[in-house]
């Protein structure tokens, strides 16, 4: 494989020295970019964009072409590819988000679920990873990703997104045996899926635990973190002669940073409700930290964005181990010029924190 021209993202995840703080944005290939909207219109719909490796590559590259400051590319895909490959029938309603034709509601439903083979059942994702990696040609590292077992389970049991997770939580408390079986199958599936992405060319991987923060402290440990720990222990951690860093991101997980830091990953993603300086004091000796500007700051003027970037950098302080990111995905209504101001500010203001 081609040598990396810019590896500061990987170096920061491993707490190695860097010249400036690396930066990327969750959902950096997305609806805030007019070129993305044009590609989606050409593809016909969101799933056609995801399932065509050439389109997936095209939209992955768009933010990199627009913003030379980006230090990583992230695979363009969806977290719900695994449940779809398990036969749940993923589709998207306009304005409604993801939906499944089948829902999981009984132990028998869960027992019938297959564990997808990454090459046979999710080959279009593996093809997208290898296509993007070739197109990048060593420009920046490529991030692969998956949803966490708990997050995937919520969509499978609810049949789509949910405000209160009533069906999922009812299953968790009424029938923990069924929930544990579902989560175990998902953990096996995610491990194989991420390892497939690594073998296809992903140079770091992130597990998105979007809904783990909606659990009680005890339930989070048992039904979310335990399964992410299982995945981390089964991942390929070296490929192509380099370490493959692993990032865990639990939205609203700030109360449990110590436990998450003990799960075996190289880095923790932080949402914007955490103070990054405090997080560094708590766990920064164990893991790198990724984050954590409130995405809605990007609605403000560039001067205000720059001020907030400076505040977060100062809070983290000197030294490596910080990957700058938003505390969640960039939102569709953001002005692309504001995203550019954010990315430029990170590189310009962070040099003083690195020797």
Automatic annotation (TrEMBL):
Pfam families: URO-D (PF01208). One of its GO terms (cellular component) is cytosol. Substrate binds at residues 27-31, 78, 155, 210, 328. Residues 22-31, 143-159 form the Uroporphyrinogen decarboxylase (URO-D) domain. It is found in: Cytoplasm. It catalyses: uroporphyrinogen III + 4 H(+) = coproporphyrinogen III + 4 CO2. The keyword Flavoprotein does not apply. Keywords: Cytoplasm, Decarboxylase, Lyase, Porphyrin biosynthesis. Its main location: cytoplasm. One of its GO terms (biological process) is protoporphyrinogen IX biosynthetic process from glutamate. Catalyzes the decarboxylation of four acetate groups of uroporphyrinogen-III to yield coproporphyrinogen-III. PANTHER family: METHYLTETRAHYDROFOLATE:HOMOCYSTEINE METHYLTRANSFERASE RELATED, UROPORPHYRINOGEN DECARBOXYLASE. Homodimer. This is Uroporphyrinogen decarboxylase. It comes from Pseudomonas corrugata. The gene is hemE.
